[in-house]
Fold this protein.
Amino acid sequence: MGAVRDAKKAYRLLKKALRSRSAVQRVRRRLGDGEQHPSGHYKIAVYFADGAVNMYQMRQWYRPLAELAKRWPVVVLSRSATGAEKLLDEDAPPVAFVPTVRDLERFIADQDIRIVLYVNQNTRNFQMFRYGRRWHVFINHGESDKMYMTTNQYKAYDYSFIAGQAARDRLTRTLWDFDINRRTFEIGRPQADHYSGALPYTPDERTVVLYAPTWEGDRPSAHYGSIATHGEALVGALLATGRHRVIYRPHPRSGVIDHEYGAAHRRIIAAISAANAADAAAQHVYDDGPELGWQLAAADVAVVDISAMVYDRLAVGKPLMITRPVDERASVDTNGYLSDCEWLTAEAAHDIVAEVERVGADEAAIARLRMWVQHYFGDTTPGVATAKFHAAVEQLMQKWDAWQAHEMGAVRPDEDDDDEEADEDD
């Protein structure tokens, strides 16, 4: 039996290697057919070592980066062939495919990259950290209260761009000897200024409800998925009114572990299809596309599980309900927004119509929501977060200039500040 297992494992590894080699060849052909990157052109690089499976971490930054590139040219350094293929297929910034360290070194030597941005904590980020004389900046791919948001890996970067006061409090509470005032910049959520995707329906008088559940989870502490416990009841009730439009956006891994969870997911899809067949004006939506943004902005009320979607929706500042996990072993962080959110229990899912009306009209709930939006993201007025993002980059560019001047023989930037203060005292 052991020999059979080893043979199967070797076969899988060989297939994976062949797929990877084929993907590398396809990317190289595509880039070879396109325009070459001008020497010394790019000032900002986004380092992305992941493959296609984690493209959601990059997609949400496409439009903010496109806006930033109007001032500072931006390139994505893609280390994975499958990731590079997706970037080339989508509305991403220019892509440099650098699968080997030698490729990476060659590209870096040919460009004037002063800031390197990181959207995740991939261990291969450390292959980029070796390059000094540029700022390494963690920008993340979302805001939440998960442990990921307080990892000691923050200390590996020169600076981090954080959303707001909640992130500041979280890092201060968790990290030892971390100078949060010097090493972080609050930028809100610039992605909220650039929601992507077009409405797949014609707006009318219906109340639009976004239901965005996560998958079932692979361990009890992560049993946040609500499709089997809440989903069928709440979607069925909303489809029946004739006054609501449902946008159903489940996690793409829904049902990969639990067969019953997957079956409930498929029944919801079938129910949406049947409702649209019975009433063409309903225009309910089963959304499994790559674009994320229009759903968050368009929905009058959102119902989501404990996941990053909580905070993606929170940044919009519109009514929101969180499904309370049925499994008591599920880990729930009650230090932040989840301590004061609008919970939807499995029992209350049957009364979703009344719950939707309540959260949309409850002044106290709306006031609490506004307070938490401010705490997590600061001023969410359109354009403000983008301005903060650009200002943070501009400040780091000025710091880069100051250190470059120091290398040319001037005093250290911090010493220069001290000298100015000393002259004033004299």
User: Anything to note?
Assistant: The two ends are 84 Å apart (CA to CA).
